[in-house]
Write a structure and sequence with these properties.
homodimer; 496 residues; mainly alpha; Neurolysin, domain 3; 3 domains; three-stranded mixed beta sheet; 21 helices
Chain lengths: 496, 496
């Protein structure tokens, strides 16, 4: 390869990517296969890699390489100049961010996250928020300090949300989420009540069903491996190495099936990114654009595809063979779509899901920027659940301690989940305009056609467009909650 | 920790061990879970780590640390001085070896191994040795070059065998193996013929039986993970992180079961090594002494335990429940011990096994040191099987492509398997003298007692003794084929 500044920078990034993907492989193994007592040594391995990675990402050498490539670009004529400039800008942005933070703060934060996670686990186990409270306070203070050091032209909470959702603002959220806060509760109230059947599927049969599901969607075994883990996830370990997990939950016969569909959606996005060569795998533009877009893809496969009527029809026999008690596919479909406000975010249906996110988003903005003291979090959480969802946690473990995110100092992450629902709905409308109704596509088993459309309208852009730009480009409309609300109203009518 | 030269060296070794165990984790994942198309990027990761490791193991810094520790040791009084000196000697030996090899060769080898493995897989699948042949040739050339660079006072093949079997010489092999080449064929000829029953066990049921087997032996799930791989193996990924694999072979109802017993034996040796702390995991004396001793432990559990009459008795009902057609445990036992020359090493019985090794050992010595061209390997392989075992492969996938070793550039490894049989037999004689007959121990399910004896007579020595010294220490006799031949003759009589 030619000894240009650009190629030197690429070689540096590739080595960083090799290290990063080794880290991901260790993480994958830890969550799928590692015996419990391997955890101490695994922590040593992960710490070793994390230190190496941080050093590479904030080194003077890296800064110089970016600079040289930038200078070289400005003097060269290159038909890919625009894209190259965009890559350099993203690298500069991240490098500057890394450099702005005091290494002492990085160290303090690493420690606080580790302590936070540890004490959150204990607090959840003991069902005692007071155990976690001082550590949460410390995490908030340190992350406020981080936002302060970053000194961006954004509010502190917005600054912290950027790595998950670039260019996200509170005013955008406010505009987009307000409609949902008004629309969802009355919709939920009017949904026809439906009792959940008590039945289950043998774990081995669930695995077979998950495998059939992936075959139906057209997975390539030589590209995608599947395993089990306590929390389902999707991960990419190389340009041609994709992995997803699922989990079997006793008494929840659809859980592993829907988790598989969800993680498949994440993976098919990653598989569609412009990452076919190591070159792109290493450069920022080859990566996913935001968590919200990622969620939109997983939610699309989980809710729009797998929870659809046509899909229930196509898998009805296979479920019946495994002891599903329903007499018709419509009954099966209805059981996969019970809408009912509950306490738990992860187990929530499509409709009530948004309310869980609204509460978390408001609370964390108030804790980071407003007057909400961590000591009042449990009270505020319970109160808002009562007001918005009409249910009240009896204990903090099913209330403000249920999610892991804050214990790791992750603020600004939650909105991505709800934005994902909105993006999925808005993009789906366009998809249906382009290639026909989703129900028909499923009826005809046109998954290849769906994937082809997603590849060419969503996935291929990588980070060249942020989430809002992507939605505008695809749908010709600004992102809003309209398509989502319309979709939900139709589905509720249909389910009636 | 005190800032002694010894501790500084320990810290250095620990970081090397972290890298080495990351390499092992990547290897584990590659063989158990990685989707096929992940192989190119995995090769990049493995090359990266191999380069780092070689750099660490041959660096001036490392040499200086060993030197300083050696000087410090000579002036200090230390009650563990003898052991520390032995550690330093082993480190010096390996350091010298590493320093001799050109880093460029290391990189070439890493890549050639990865490509070799990849193309061996394809060649085996397509049953086409020609696909693999050029890669094997490349591996042989590179490893010959390595032996050349090492310039030890040994033949090239002996030089390459040292890491597996320290102090092994061709003349020792000649002395030990010659008896077997003469004894086994007539023994095999006179064994009472027994027709193999045609039956099978459902793959899921095989997994359950393997799990029962491990439970019977006393495995700890928090220490040992199990998976499937094309070629069963055992690996240690941390001081408290052990893994084994098995594989299901269609039409071979005992295959996964015996492979599990075999790999358990490897793992229980590793688990019994003085490696409980990171300190020992990092120092050479905490490691296994040789592949032959390793094999002796796996073969012990496979053949002496699992293929014994008492064991067949104890698992008879469990096999019957899975469709085993035999009317008595003695019939089951006899089917597990059919002695008949076949094409496959891994599926071979205890008696004909040695012949598979004799052929491979001769072939690789001729490829490394003699005139055997890789292009003639398939022909030579088939010819020697015909002459020594009386069977001839119809295709290379069941001939010279059956084993993985050469595809990873591992020459000098095969004799360990046969030496393992001899060591297992000789050590078993002593074990029975000390704690009673193996049949009785199994009858009483005294696996803990067996493991305790092995821990205290074999495992605990780590690398303080080489394999020949270990055998002499345990049995008071030089290693020979005598105990093995005696054991085989008795077993054949018993089976009659």
């Amino acid at each position: 390869m030619e000894e240009t500044a650009w190629n030197k920078l690429g070689a540096y990034l590739k080595e960083t990517q090799i290290l990063g993907s080794i880290q991901s492989t260790l993480y994958w193994d830890q969550n799928t296969t590692m015996p419990k007592e391997g955890s101490n040594w695994r922590a040593e391995q992960l710490t070793y890699i994390a230190k190496k990675l941080h050093k590479r990402n904030s080194s003077q050498e890296f800064g110089d390489l970016i600079n040289s490539a930038e200078v070289e670009l400005s003097t060269l004529k290159d038909d890919k100049k625009e894209i190259k400039v965009q890559n350099i800008n993203l690298l500069n942005k991240e490098y500057t961010r890394q450099k702005k933070i005091d290494p002492l703060l990085v160290e303090k934060l690493a420690r606080a996250k580790s302590k936070g996670y540890q004490n959150w686990q204990q607090a959840k186990l003991d069902n005692d928020y007071e155990i976690f409270q001082p550590f949460l306070k410390e995490l908030i203070n340190l992350r406020k300090e981080e936002a302060n050091q970053l000194a961006e032209d954004l509010s502190p909470w917005e600054t912290l949300a950027q790595p998950y959702e670039p260019d996200l603002t509170k005013s955008f959220l406010n505009k987009t989420f307000t409609a949902l806060k008004e629309t969802i509760p009355p919709l939920l109230k009017n949904v026809k009540k439906r009792k959940k059947e008590v039945w289950d599927i043998d774990p081995n049969a669930q695995k077979v069903l998950c495998s059939m599901l992936l075959d139906e969607f057209g997975r390539k075994k030589e590209l995608l491996s599947v395993a089990e883990s306590p929390h389902p996830f999707s991960i990419t370990l190389g340009p041609r190495d994709f992995r997803i997990t699922t989990r079997i939950v006793k008494g929840e016969p659809f859980s592993s099936f829907l988790a598989t569909a969800h993680e498949w959606g994440h993976s098919i996005y990653e598989q569609g990114l412009p990452s076919q060569t190591h070159q792109w795998f290493a450069w920022p533009l080859g990566q996913a654009t935001s968590m919200a877009v990622h969620e939109s893809q997983s939610l699309f496969w989980e809710n729009r595809i797998t929870k659809s009527k046509s899909f229930a029809k196509s898998f009805f026999k296979r479920f019946s063979n495994q002891g599903c008690p329903h007499k018709s596919y419509k009954e099966l479909w209805k059981e996969m779509n019970i809408f009912k406000a509950g306490l738990n975010r992860v187990e929530a249906d499509e409709l009530s899901y948004g309310l869980h996110i609204l509460i978390r988003t408001e609370l964390e903005i108030e804790m980071i920027e407003g007057n909400l003291d961590t000591r009042d979090l449990s009270y505020e959480w319970n109160n808002r659940y009562k007001n918005l969802l009409g249910v009240k946690p009896l204990k903090d473990s099913e209330g403000c301690l249920q999610d892991v995110h804050w214990s790791e100092g992750a603020f600004g992450y939650f909105p991505s989940y709800l934005l994902g629902h909105l993006i999925s709905a808005q993009i789906s409308t366009k998809l249906e305009n382009d290639i026909g109704s989703i129900e028909d596509l499923i009826e005809n088993r046109s998954y290849e056609k769906i994937i082809f459309w997603l590849n060419n309208n969503v996935h291929k852009y990588g980070r060249t467009l942020n989430s809002m730009e992507l939605v505008l480009k695809v749908t010709n409309l600004e992102l809003s909650s309209e398509a989502f609300i319309k979709y939900m109203k139709n589905k509720i009518r249909d389910l009636d």
